[in-house]
Amino acid sequence: MTKLIATSIMALAGGVALAQQIPLTLEQAVQQASDRYPAVKSSLEQVLAAEAQIRLVRTSYLPRADFIGQVNRASHNNEFGMLLTQPVISPISGPVQGTNSLGSVWGSAVGVQVAWEPFDFGLRRALLAEAQIALGRAGTEVAVTRLQVEAAAADAFLTILAADESAVAARAAVERARVLGGIVDALVKNELKPGADASRAHVEIALAENQLIEAEQAAEVARAGLAQLLGVDPHDLSVQPGPLLQLPPEQPPTAFAPANHPLALAQAAAIAEVKSKEKALDRSYFPRFDLQGTSYARGTGISPDGTTGGAASGLGPNIQNWGLGITVTFSAFDFSSLKARKEIELHNELREADKYDQFIQDLNGQMGKARATLAGAQRVARNTPTEVEAARAGAQQADARYRSGLGNIVEVAEADRILAQAEVDDALARLGVWRALLAVAAASGDLQQFLEQSRK
Can you list the domains of the chain with their CATH numbers? Predict the structure, then answer.
């Protein structure tokens, strides 16, 4: 039984390890980054907070009920005279007794007051609209964060492929350098070539190996970058190129509407939010009406004639009252402060509008640059196969000339370097087209079409 359990655990662990090594496609990497990256989760929490703010504002339409219960032991001296409103001296009700004694009696009170604002000249509706617009802005900011994270994940994915392709070309260069080194060593051993050729061949091997090390290092760094966005260990990350190592089919440019970009939508929401604050301020300089109802009971251990009851007299309420009414309050001198606050919001609105214009201008510029980069990348990608073919022919000719004694080791080494660089250029040129397509998609604010192309 124990052996069976151990075998099952090992099989499960192997299955988990295998699942972790399943290569990710570009679309899967983008989706995982969007689902897992903390910045996206933080934006979603802002949306939830904005929804809670709407629920909070809606509670202002409800009546308010305040309950009180109190028991105290205090002296009962009372006197004529006015006392300005302050929070320190407690008032005493009842007639003046003409006493100045430190004797005390019990006092008690219970009560409830219900207040409701029947109308507010549109202030609560304006505050609710402000909260709803803030919710919309939070939603657009989620879209902005998702776009940035998804574009970063797609770029990191392409960077991994580029680094891997560079490493492949570097390994091929190392293999050619080692083959050349073996041929040169044999010729030198047979005294058909000078010893200096062997030294040069070994130098070329070392240089090719250094380039391979740098390429592999770049690949590991690229994997670490994508792993950071996905929240996984770089060693558990494997990518599936799919069609990304081939040239994508050329498509006509689609119409570009910068106003529909998530950045522009988020900034438009920011402008609307400021305007909603201005409307709320416009509804603030009005009287406040409160419909109030109260019921309470009080108890005291002293009578109006100055006599006191027993030891427990006043511990329970024995006199009750109720009342209904409406209270009107109006802060007349708030006009100046409200005017200043509205001026602040007006300048905030103008600032946000200027930011919107800047975003539109920048987005148009980014799209122009991305399309120009795409056109250039496509031209380079169409030219690199010719470069590789010519470089390969040159390397073969240099090798043949060297073996026949018509060339030297320098020509062979140079031809091999040119071939290695041409192979790297060819691989990176195709990925450069995909990277340019990603830049166009990011500038448009929607990666969906780019991701669909990566599936074909």
Answer: 24-61+106-285+292-304+312-455 (1.20.1600.10)
